Amino acid sequence: MRTAVTAPSAEELKRQNDIMLKIKRINDGLPERPKFFINTFGCQMNAHDSEKIDGMLRQMGYLPETEEKKADFIIYNTCCVRENAENKVYGNLGYLKHAKKEKPNMKIALCGCMMQQETVIETIRQKYKHVDIVFGTFNLYKLPELIYANMKSKSQIFDIWDEHADIVEDLPMVRKYKFKASVNIMYGCNNFCSYCIVPYVRGRERSRRPDDIINEIKALAADGVKEVMLLGQNVNSYGKGLDENITFADLLRFVNDIDGIERIRFMTSHPKDLSDELIASMAECKKVCRHIHLPFQAGSNEILRRMNRHYTKEYYLELIDKIRKAMPDIAITTDIIVGFPGETPEQVAETVDVVKKARFNGAFTFIYSKRTGTPAASMPEQVSEEDAKKGFALLLDAVNPIVEELNTQKVGRIYPVLVDGISSDPEYVTGRTDDNTLVHFKGGKELIGEILDIKITECKTFYLIGEKIQ
Ligand code: 5AD
Ligand code: SF4
User: Fold this and answer.
1) Which tens digit of pLDDT belongs to each residue from 255-303?
2) pLDDT at 2
3) pLDDT tens-digit map of 336-357
4) Class of domain 9-159 as given by CATH
5) What is the pLDDT of residues 376-432, one digit of tens each?
6) 95 C-beta closer than 6 A to ligand 2
7) Model pTM?
8) Where are the domains of the chain?
9) Which atom of ligand 2 is nearest to the CA of 192?
């Protein structure tokens, strides 16, 4: 791995733009334009990075393809938060080896968090020689240059940096939705939760300048975007390290003032950094959705201490009390891990206790996955798979009835729903309430992008059925 060289953002972008043009000319000259397929693993940060990759590839003359096996250029944007996400990538790569034998011109690129680990790079060098281009999380904007280098040399290209350079603004981007968009407000994480690989693969926290964020959102609003999702690993520490004196609470107020934007979401918040000022700003800003994702991870104070989370169960419960007092209609969702090294059944019971007291509207529950290089990986007493599964089942038994109960309370009420797509039953569309509950109702694709009043008629545990109010 090498350390990034700081390059002036505008200059660097121009260089990549010039290379994009060269590649476009090459692709324009081919009998058929090469088709690309991006397989995205992991979180919304990765999904957003894939929108940038998509934008660059189209600018270089590649055409989007929805079926992997028909594509000439396949990119895997990988995740390494848990082991099974990595295993999926290796499994797919095995299959692609055969596919490439039948289609020798196929190009395969790998990027994203998994590529920031030296062991992974070694494995790819040794076992997956059919991969053409490998890059990491810090140099996504260099994709044109890497493609060009591979075109010229026909050899494997590895370009992994172990820290970030300047934030490169204004990359071309193709948004998945016309009416909603994700916007990075910061990159990286400084928290080093002892189980988590993210700080090692996404680097230190750095915030984008408020002007860049605001201008991007204004341009999105002008382009028809109604809902923005502000993205960061830990949005509550937004602003640290910037020349301007600005907090996340201030940023929310600025975004709230942008005409055309109707809904503001953000993710993810760390409980330890969630200030009273932020709660006040959320309550005051009418466009900020009544939903907060606030991972608590574990209920036992001893486990929280060993997870390096910097809060206690009591602090967390008080915090959500405060949030609900300020915004009684807010939905709170969370992330929970079971099977952290040394976690006893009594400690799992404490997690279940938090679930019952906090009454979450939704929870992502995970079995602890050992990540080499993190402090938790070398802690003694790794929990057996069997015990972790037992804890996991107990947890779901606690979470699901509460989710169902809270969703059932919505039956008979009317909620504005932003319609985002066609349901698996083509007579229905799907959308989200302000508090992020999924709703299905009868309607056609012409409704996509609209915010409509929907009367809830039925609860299906994790989603609702409704009907349009005439
Ligand atoms: N094992 C299981 N879950 C993890 N998460 C992060 N690292 C791990 C791990 N090693 C979960 C946390 C985090 C979410 C994004 O993924 O709950 O909030
Ligand atoms: Fe991982 Fe903790 Fe940072 Fe979240 S806050 S990305 S769990 S280290």
Assistant:
1) 999 999 999 999 999 999 999 999 999 999 999 999 999 999 999 999 9
2) 42
3) 999 999 999 999 999 999 999 9
4) alpha beta
5) 999 988 899 999 999 999 999 999 999 999 999 999 999 999 999 999 999 999 999
6) no
7) 0.91
8) 9-159, 180-407, 414-468
9) 8
Residue 229, pLDDT above cutoff 60: yes
Distance 81 CA to ligand 2 centre (A): 10
Q: What is the pLDDT of residues 231-251, one digit of tens each?
A: 999 999 999 999 999 999 999
Architecture category of domain 414-468 in CATH: Beta Barrel (2.40)
The minimum-distance atom of ligand 1 relative to the CA of 295 is 18
Mutate to test the pocket of ligand 1, among 41, 44, 79, 82 (most ligand atoms within 8 A of CB): 82
Give the per-residue SS3 of the chain. CECCCCCCHHHHHHHHHHHHHHHHHHHHCCCCCCEEEEEECCCHHHHHHHHHHHHHHHHCCCEECCCHHHCCEEEEEECCCCHHHHHHHHHHHHHHHHHHHHCCCCEEEEEEHHHHCHHHHHHHHHHCCCCCEEECCCCHHHHHHHHHHHHHHCCCEEECECCCCCCCCCCCCCCCCCCEEEEECEECCCCCCCCCCHHHHHCCCEECCHHHHHHHHHHHHHCCCCEEEEECCCHHHCCCCCCCCCCHHHHHHHHHCCCCCCEEEEECCCHHHCCHHHHHHHHHCCCECCEEECCCECCCHHHHHHCCCCCCHHHHHHHHHHHHHHCCCCEEEEEEEECCCCCCHHHHHHHHHHHHHHCCCEEEEEECCCCCCCHHHHCCCCCCHHHHHHHHHHHHHHHHHHHHHHHHCCCCCEEEEEEEEECCCCCEEEEEECCCCEEEEECCHHHCCCEEEEEEEEECCCEEEEEECC
CB of 192 shorter than 6 A to ligand 2 = yes
| 191 CA distance to ligand 2 middle (Å) | 6
Residue 5: predicted pLDDT: 42
Closest residue (by CA) to atom 5 of ligand 2? 191
Atom 4, ligand 2: which residue's CA is nearest? 233
Q: What's the CATH superfamily of 180-407?
A: tm_1862 like domain (3.80.30.20)
Residue ranges around ligand 1 (CB below 6 Å):
81-82, 195-196, 295, 297, 335, 337, 366, 368-369, 371
Distance from residue 297's CA to the centre of ligand 1 (Å) = 8
Which of 337, 338, 369 maximizes ligand 1 atoms within 8 Å of its Cβ, making it the mutation to test the pocket?
A: 337
Res 223 pLDDT > 50: yes
